[in-house]
Amino acid sequence: MLEKAKTIQDQLSAWRRDFHMHPELGFQETRTAAKVAEILELLGYRVKRGVGRTGVVAEYGNGKPLVAIRADMDALPLQETNQVTYASQNPGVMHACGHDSHMAMALGAAALLSREKFPGMVRFLFQPSEEVGDDEGISGAPRMIQEGVMENVDLVIALHVEPTAPVGAIRIRSGPASGGVDSWFGEIIGKGGHGAHPHQTIDPFYISAHVLFALNGIVSRRIDPFNPAVVSVGSLHGGFTENVIPERVKLTGTLRYTEKRVQEQIHAEIRRAFEIAKTLGGNYELKFEIGTAPMINSPMAAELITTVAVDLLGEQNILSWKNELGAEDFGCFMELAPGAMFALGTGSEILHCNLHNPAFDLDESCLPVGAAIFAETALRFLRENKP
């Protein structure tokens, strides 16, 4: 399969560069989706457009088993600094997270699978807006799920580019592979007044300082140290001039976790931290915005991808997973079917800039590798699990 994928290297690069030159932000991927749908229709897929607002779903084959392959489509609000012929032509928008290559590799897998005979069906999910939520705080994966894209799915797989690993290598593990993420929004409410008469006020800055200490003690003093967790304060805003103590101070932040019970404990501890405001004579308002679920790779899916990668790349190119709590809404799909995401090495001695950087680029020789792993994993699952 890898040899077959290498024969379409030029096409994979052309697709990737086209997407890279015309990046679009979350839920605005109209040109991108149209291009994806057009390619899939030419390959003989049954295509549905406008899924989850701007997503594309494409199917090939019939019946069971059913393998879903997901690729995200959105770009980031960054001004590209690369001086390349395929640099972004959309000012202030850039594919700095590799979603252009994710789409190219998924399309490559679609092309490879269209030449094969297999039982069951493959379903490609070209997802909008992995990076951000809509006006209700909901990202592309849940929006697509609401429209039934996970019905009857037996296995769902995805990849993410990994510039810290070399081309020809992958990272894969079973179990937690990314963190769940929620956001929180709080206000400390005091009593405003003149800066020269603080005793006549209830200073929300003074209260906020105590709340901040409590928030920063949650992970180190309230959470079991063997449970991954993060609580971070992202913004603090209050006041409008130097000699007036305001009535309110706003604090916002994020939390990360891998287990549901830890998520619930963090929510409770953040509320407890804000209760300090009442102890010090003030009050508070606090709300949570529930984000994406943690990404938990199923042992079956991770083992299958590992086996495929060993056969295609060699055991020496299966690297250990990098533990971190970055968020990825692919976990929402894996709540509904067994699945796994693997990290695909895209780095070289020249191209190793990290993700979300305006100078990010990748070694395009990685594209056949990702396409081949996608296609071979789907084929093996379908053939080994036919009714």
Strand order of the largest sheet: 1-2-4-3-5-16-6-15
- Beta-strand share of residues: 25-35%
Radius of gyration: 23 Å
Q: What is the CATH domain class of the largest domain?
A: Alpha Beta
Backbone structural class: alpha/beta
Largest sheet: 8 strands, mixed
Order of helices and strands: HHHEEEHEHEEEEEHHEEEHHEEHEHEH
Helix residue percentage: 25-40%
CATH superfamily of the largest domain: Zn peptidases
Number of helices: 12
Head-to-tail CA distance between termini: 24 Å
Coarse shape: elongated
Q: Based on the coordinates given, report the CATH architecture of the largest domain.
A: 3-Layer(aba) Sandwich
* CATH fold naming of the largest domain: Aminopeptidase
Q: Count up the domains.
A: 2
Based on DSSP secondary structure assignment, what is the total number of beta strands?
Answer: 16
Low-confidence residue ranges: none
Report mean pLDDT, rounded to a whole number: 96
